[in-house]
Write a structure and sequence with these properties.
By secondary structure, the chain is an alpha/beta fold. It folds into 3 domains: 1-49, no CATH class; 63-401, Spore Coat Polysaccharide Biosynthesis Protein SpsA, Chain A, CATH 3.90.550.10; 407-474, no CATH class. The protein is 30% helix and 20% strand. It has helices at 12-20, 36-47, 51-59, 64-74, 92-104, 140-155, 170-179, 225-232, 235-241, 262-270, 309-312, 335-343, 398-401, 416-433, 454-458; strands spanning 81-82, 108-113, 161-165, 190-194, 197-199, 201-202, 210-212, 215-216, 218-220, 246-251, 275-281, 290-295, 298-302, 325-334, 351-355, 359-360, 366-367, 374-378, 391-395, 437-438, 444-446, 466-467, 471-473. The strands form 7 sheets. Strands 1, 2, 3, 4, 10, 11, 12, 13, 14 and 19 form a 10-stranded mixed sheet that branches. Strands 6-18-15 form a 3-stranded antiparallel sheet, with no helix packed on it. Helix 7 links the parallel strand 3 and strand 4 (190-194). The protein is globular and about 75 Å long. 42% of the residues are buried.
Amino acid sequence: MEAVTNSAAPSREELLGRLSAHGQQHLLAFWDSLAEHERQSLAAELCQIDFALMEQLCQQRDSAGEEVRKLADRAASPPSFRLGHGGEGIAPQGAVRRGIEALRDGQIGAVLVAGGQGTRLGFDHPKGMFPIGPVSNKTLFQIHVEKIIATSRRYGVPVPLYLMTSPATHDETVAFFARHQRFGLPDGDLRVFCQAAMPAVDAESGRILLDRPGHIALSPDGHGGTLAALNRSGALGHARDRGIRDFFYFQVDNPLVDVCGPEFLGYHLLCGAEMTTQVVRKQDPLEKVGNVVQVDGRLWVIEYSDLPEEAARRRAADGSLAIWAGSIGVHAFDLGFLERMARSAGGLPFHRARKKVPFVDPTGRRIEPSTPNAIKFERFIFDLMPSAARAIVVEVDPARHFAPLKNGPGEKKDTAATVRAQMTHLHTEWLRRAGAEVAEGAAVEISPLVALDAEELAGKIRAGARIAEPTYFG
């Protein structure tokens, strides 16, 4: 969505003229029954919609599948580094040194994508506010911010955090950070900006849906909206002025992410990559992650919802998955690359997904569909990959780096219970490596402000210490 500036709110007649040109006049069906503030709100939403773009997207909505199938047919495994093992003649120690050098020089900024709500978790707030600490009950936001603060302290230089919200989460997120004094992050090191939203359309007719009589059914434009939002908000220029050269990019739902990990950043920098992506080795061919592949010497990501099943199940000669590299939403970006792509015509493409979207029918009755009825449009940040002069892949151990919080109670994986168990397992491993004795089943949690890794913890734990009760090291 792009804002249309106007000195005064348009009249009903003006709005009707715009809508009629694109067959969307039904959006004013309840105008006469709306209160004045509801009319103003609806008018503002309508003025932000690029109806020509929506019309184009609806007409092209079936073309993407064929392109993806062509890519999948030619897809090969991507060459990759492996965290802790290196690759291409680069040893892990050398990568760590280069990453530390960039951090100490103040060249690294962090981008945290936090536009999602906790609806699937049964949590009616921004997902970043979900209390996930297995002992402390700290929120995802606090854990991530403490990692930023700890990194800044370790390397003696501020690491600015650029936090992206969505229209649905922005105000509550801003208020939450203000209420908690940004969890100790200096005011000048936090910049919050909001991504755009896109209307949902009826899958059959292409008509934009109303969520309520005076409100359009909107959803965030995807994590790929980060690029436009960074540029539109002035964050790219702000980073450039601060001397930032590269961004560490991550998503809010993964509390195990190694924020600004120097080895990962080192591979990115030593290879001169414009984009670097963390992946895990897929255990299930239909796993719900983006699939990193190589096609004609360039890296691409095919979203799980776009990958044909026969391609997903394809096996290599040794029996392993041919398409094995699952993106976990952690990247490094060269700032100049993002600036160049932000200036490019058209920007990132939109992907289409069939979803169940509640709407009001012509009588004003709210309908809760039982099957997918609508098309949502969103952009994916990994679509930047084939445009990079060089892109590389770094494989990480999911047990140490990937615990996404996606599902509510009752599901088998990616729930609050499984995430907390994974956090406890990792921190138990750290403690035992430091010489502590941890009883089986004892919940433990280590604040990032105490230690960012097992090596840092080793000097802070008494050898032989016994832990038998839930314990928080903070």
